[in-house]
Write a structure and sequence with these properties.
Blueprint (H helix, E strand, L loop, with lengths): L1 H122 L1 H25 L1
Helix pairs in contact: 1-2
Length: about 150
């Protein structure tokens, strides 16, 4: 029986040794896997940081480009508005001058006509009264005719 007990003890001892050896091997494997995981996580972290920096740089470049284009567009719009304002001022000046010339010419023509009428009335008072009376009579008939039509 002592032999059997020693055999069991030896078997248990061998089993414990094998279990210890298996745990040690598992621990080594786990350490290797943990190390590979750390390396992979570090690489992923570095790749993510690099990707973020690249995206940030591209975004900054895109914003700079957009800003530059917007400034160019505003400058172009300002130049166009300035040209339009200058052209409008020139056109206004031209039209103002023409209107002033037309007014001066019309005023001169009216003054000349008034002077001619005054001279004619002074030279031909009888005819002038008859022309005025005939004109008044015709205008009166026309006005009376219009009232009758209503």
């Amino acid at each position: 029986m002592k032999d059997d007990l020693n055999k069991v003890k030896d078997s248990v001892s061998e089993g414990l040794d094998e279990a210890k050896e298996g745990l040690r091997a598992a621990k080594e494997d786990l350490g290797e896997h943990a190390e590979r995981f750390k390396e992979g996580a570090s690489k992923a972290k570095d790749a993510a940081r690099e990707g973020f920096e690249t995206a940030k740089e591209r975004a900054r470049e895109g914003l700079d480009t957009a800003k530059t284009r917007a400034q160019e567009g505003f400058a172009h719009a300002r130049e166009s508005a300035e040209r339009a304002r200058e052209q409008a001022q020139e056109r206004y000046s031209e039209l103002s001058d023409k209107a002033r010339e037309g007014y001066v010419r019309a005023r001169k023509d009216m003054d000349d006509l008034a002077g001619n009428v005054n001279d004619y009335v002074r030279d031909n008072p009888g005819k002038s009264v008859l022309i005025a009376a005939a004109t008044g009579f015709i205008v009166g008939l026309l006005m009376r005719g219009e009232r009758g039509d209503r």
